[in-house]
Design brief:
The protein has 73 residues and is mainly beta. It is 8% helix and 37% strand. It contains 1 helix and 5 strands, in the order βββββα. Strands 3-4-5 form a 3-stranded antiparallel beta sheet, with no helix packed on it. The longest helix has 6 residues, at 60-65. The protein is globular and about 25 Å long. Bound molecules: zinc ion. Zinc ion (ZN) binds at residues 8, 10-11, 13, 30, 32-33, 35.
Length: 73
């Protein structure tokens, strides 16, 4: 596990979250406003997305359901 420091996309609260070592996106819940958001660790930077703004490939739930198909609108 690795920890990264991110800002909540809803209330901008700064917090440290655990990310896996495999660069997979993960859901986190803001410790201040309680909203769910997605953190995706990249090679050089960390992306923080609101759940509804995340593309399918960055949404852990979508990835579980759509493992092989692409998920275009
Ligand atoms: Zn928040």
């Amino acid at each position: 596990m690795s920890t990264v420091t991110v800002n909540c996309p809803y209330c901008q609260e700064s917090m440290t979250v655990n990310q896996g070592d495999d660069y997979a996106p993960r859901f986190h819940e803001c410790c201040k406003c309680g909203q769910k958001f997605i953190v995706e660790r990249g090679l050089s930077k960390v992306k923080v997305m609101k759940e509804k703004d995340a593309p399918c490939m960055s949404n852990p739930e979508c990835r579980e359901i759509e493992t092989s198909a692409t998920c275009e609108e």
